[in-house]
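pinging the channel bc i need a second pair of eyes. not urgent but kinda urgent?? the chain im working w is below, pasted from the shared doc
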Amino acid sequence: MTTYLSQALTKYYERQKNKIVFSNKMSLNELAFSMWEKLGFKEIDASVISRVINGKRLFTPLQIDIFCEILKISKSEREALQHNLHLDHCKNYGVSLNPLFFNPYSTLEVFKQLTAKTYSLLYRGRCDETEEMSTFIFQSLKDVLKTNISNFALNELTKIQQDALYLKTRASVGVVQAQEALRLWKPLSQQLFEISNNHSRKYLAFEEMSRASAYYVSGNYSYSNKAHVFHKLAILYAKKAINHFSESHPDILFAYRTAIASAIFLKDQHLFESLSNDKKLERIILSLKKDYSVMAIHVYHTIARGKAVFHLPSVYATYDKAEKYFGDNVQGKGIHELADIRNELEILSVLKIKDKNYIEMIGNRGFILAGEFNSRRHTINIKKLLNKLLN
């Protein structure tokens, strides 16, 4: 397997027997350690670099900059490596691209396509890929926006940069541990504020949904006395996001789901019923279901959990309705499946269902997915629910 980037990198190292030696005489392990230090003791190790040069994964734009700094690679060659990374991302996500695009309108179209593909990754629950792709878009646009382009192109590309930063925030908060959620969200929120000169309804929706998501994660997996406060804040900002998102934006479903899930945590049945029976929600689900079935199922599974918690009728009717109605359009649930497994385990717990084989089966599936998505908080939560159900 080769990539544009892996082919371009071959000039900077050679294989000596079973070893890789880079142009500055560093070994693979030495380069990895040096990059690791410059990246703040994260993101990289020898296996990552090995996979990059063998075409099995890609560097991020920042990793390329650090690689070039250590190997003392010229600015023009660094730009060539970034361009090859760009070509790989376009190829991987099905974006048609003439490698010699310099027209700002062509550039705009490429980034629009890349952003649409990244939203698709998010709604399929591929948080790691979403974070990687959104970081690439954001970093690439920082360079593009420094060039001499028209005001129209500047405004449109800035909007895409906002989308990229929002996607990065959503994806990052989606997998981070509870105690890290707010710490991670704040600097990203500040960056979003700084690049948003015109605070449109879309920007406000992005800001409020990012904040709601961070508070929800902090509250839902927190054992401190702040959990109730966090969930009340999650509801507050999710409801604001619902008002600011257009009904055609799929993340309005995520805003509803966040508010409904926090209402369940707070045992607020009145709010739960008000949100889950909202005719606007039903209308949005019906209009978006073809392209965003996973998000629709996610909402319905959360509603089913709430019905179980509040001892309302039609728990499994709601659950089955979602699978039957949307199932044909689903193409991989990704990390959303983890939350749906949690929903089902909580329903089984509330209804006092003790089918040991079935509980262990979905629990094991949850552990596999939590490992795949490197989500320690989901692992802890599933383990806690299994102990409650099986003991």
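so The two ends are 48 Å apart (CA to CA). and The longest strand covers residues 13-16. — does that match what u expected or am i reading it wrong
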